[in-house]
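Sequence only, no structure available. Ideas?
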Amino acid sequence: MMVSTHYHSKVGELEEGGEEFLCAQTLDQMDEVEFWVRNLERQEKFSFWLQTSTDKFYPDFVCKLKDGRYLVVEYKGADRWSNDDSKEKRRLGELWALKSEGRCLFIMPKGKNWEAMRTLLEQRCEYFLSAISLSSSSILVPLAMFMRRAIAAFQRF
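Reply:
I predicted one. Tokens follow.
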């Protein structure tokens, strides 16, 4: 995979040719994406996660958009998109995005519905356009900390 906007020179835990790989390629080709990272599970100092009713949910990708917003993507194959686990993660991600007052976006595309990601990126939120500072919302603290840790960790390589 020729990566142009992945933050690091090597993408972790991504099987070439798989559906998550195709999702990553789509993110990599989006003009709105400044950079993205593959969010690895259970990396205590580096992973971004949201708490579910039973455990932690680690979305597949975290993107920094050129307009300053963040996009979090959890890829799900069409066959798993409507199961109970996916429904809970989707609702949690959507609530997280809602609480960010427009500064964060969440999407769980249904299978290879890449157009849904493009449509979401085109949406502008009044809250975001009012330029509320990142530090003013407690919902963004985990994401901001994740991005800072990920950047710092890989600057060493």
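DSSP finds five helices and six strands in the chain.
Hope that gets you unstuck.
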